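Notes to self after the call with IL:
- keep both proteins in one doc
- input above output, always
- annotate only the second one for now

Protein 1:
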Amino acid sequence: MLSLFSNPTFRAVYIAQVISLIGAGVATVALGLMAYEIAGPGAGAVLGIALALKMLTTVGLSSFITAALESFPRRRVLVGLELTRGAVMLAFPFVTEIWQIYLLIVLLHSASAGLVPSLRATIPDILPDERDYTRALALTQLSYDMETVTSPLLALLLLSLVPLNGLFLATVCGFVASAALLASAALPAQRFTSELGVSARAARGIRLYLGTPMLKGLLALTFSAACASAMVLVNTVVLVQSSLGLEQQFTVLALTVFGCGSMTAALLIPALLERFPVRATMVAGSCICLGGLMVGPLIVSYPVLIVFWFGLGAGYSLILTPAGRLVARTAGGADRSVLFAAHFALTHACWFVAYLTAGLAGAAAGMTATFLVLAAMATGGFFVAARLWPQDRATATAAVSADRGEA
């Protein structure tokens, strides 16, 4: 995988992505601390609403923003959106009211809703060989997993040197550095030929996505992964500190182990896809996720939880890491951005439902019931994928071909 860094364009884009991810992670920590300063014991509700706004903004605006920006030069779009995120973060130190947090969250994730799909659609053009692109996807998943570990540690280090507002300024510096790297990269031109309007382009991306059996199956499997990750991210603190009676550091360690499971699977993905079909690999990941949730009520000790969390992380990554390969395989160059935007929006809808279920079920019915509810949801995703995604690859693009014939 390291050979990919000999490509100067990919190297610049990947490093920009890593810096941007770490900056966003530090901002998340800072937001939690700011919410506590303003709302006190009500900080949890503030963060819950902020997370919901993030998801709703992504689901509602991603396809439209991406379609609106398709006709502009790719480098200008990516740099402009990254600088926009930096400008929004620059306003956070001046926040004094909760409603201002909500407004800035909507603005921040409106920019992210256009940036992330556009960036993901760029990488297949940089690395047209499917093997190289698969390795790039594995590296991308690794960067997401490392961010979950690195960002909190970096935030703690910065807080020992600067006040809370310094975290937001550090995030601004990260976004600006990412923009500078993207500006320096020789990005391939965007292939935009459609005469459709913004709404029609956005609708086309969603129609192509939901009209493709392979991508409908991908969405159902992503729902299984979302159920597993929601249980981990929402309820680890409850399981570790309430059910098992352990300290905060054990919660952090458990979340780190989940990330390690995901990283391990991501490293194995390129080799696995050389030997097994993408569908089989992702279905195996779904089986691990739903199986882990089904037997989750048997967790009676911390070592057992650690083993389960590592397995859920691996299953989660087996589903998510190859996803971009399926989207890129389905899309023609002219439709790639809107199709990635549709994927970004629809998969975030999966996380919205899973996070909401994990939180509400955990509070109302306890951990055993939450495991079983999420296991049932993940099982539903598995069976929907098995029904909608045929093994014959030729049928997977039939809907897209038909749609192009109509266009």
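Protein 2 (the one to annotate):
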Amino acid sequence: MESINLISTFAEFKELKNIDKATMAGVLEDVFRNMLQKLYETDENYDIIVNIEKGDLEIWRNRKVVEADFLEDDNLEISLEDAKKIDATYELGEYVAEAIPMSSFGRRAVLAIRQNLASRIMDLEKANLFNKYKERVGELMNCEVYQVWKKEMLVFDDQGNELLIPKSEQIPGDFFRKGETVRAIISKVEMINNSPKIILSRTAPEFLERLFELEVPEIFDGLITIKKIVRIPGERAKVAVESYDERIDPVGACVGVKGARIYTIVKELRNENIDVVNWTSNPQLLIQRALNPAKISSVVISEAEKKAEVHLKPSEISMAIGKGGLNIRLASMLTGYEIDVYREGAEAEEEDDVALVDFSDEIEPWIIEEFRRIGCDTAKSVLKISVEELTRRTDLETETIDEVMRILRTEFE
């Protein structure tokens, strides 16, 4: 009866942890054979029959029939007299098979079996979890926040497995409460002290790539390829894309109508500004596109040193560098060249202008895109046009334009 209880307990655990029947039967047999080896120093004369479907287990011992005077090991041999008590037809040299009840092993042995079984199942589940997530590195996940600590955040997947998002893998500005849903990619899977540690990330470039695949059908279908992504999480990112269909504008497809597609991604990334550029194998052209919205006069490349000298008009320099140097830093990361900016000619130095994209923390990205659509890439280019003219040429409300003008004027006061 106790063997049946053991099987039932294991079956319940199996249903919970999704362990296949063959593995379950193998673990059970192995646990009982270990017990037999400890009790009798051998398990070779025992047959263990596991029936997972019925939920029972049988242990049969096989002993050779010998004369009573020659009996040396009553675990391996049985006297002819005792054999005939079981069945009168037994003869010398034959083998007697008899079922061994669980009660014969004693209470301590049964308890040890239960403990060993629980330990083996736990180890098996840890290995299964490790292997499952090892194959899913780079995959996007939706998890439930369970606990938020100073250095990391504990989340659960849809099966209740524990995953971690360290503070270093969270976007600056991330703030989650218990019970909320968080998106992240599987970044790293390690086995530490025989326990799997699954690390998720929201700062990896692959996280941004998965979001683009989710929001842009052309990327998911393979019509547009993401060639490279560079990020400064929470601040700015540059994404180089290429289309395999000449009829598809990769940048326009990624941005969407009125920035609808990219706005969803920007919102997920805590208003991280995203520049989408057309990929090209021409390094000079790629550098020009990467430094957008600045207008480049000329580029001189040194392949040996992987350096690029970029010459611009004085009015374009601030846009090329960007707020806090983010634009030129990301452009260097995207192109693989160390970029140095040089002032062109001897023009009188003008008051530095500021690129509109540098106001993304105060102005919605889709509003900035609307201004860029009519050729206004910088703060001064917007301020030069009247509110009435901007209202006429864009799809923006007058109140929205007034607020943008106020923000831009503040920059120069």
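Annotation: The radius of gyration is 35 Å. Confidence is low (pLDDT under 50) at residues 346-350.
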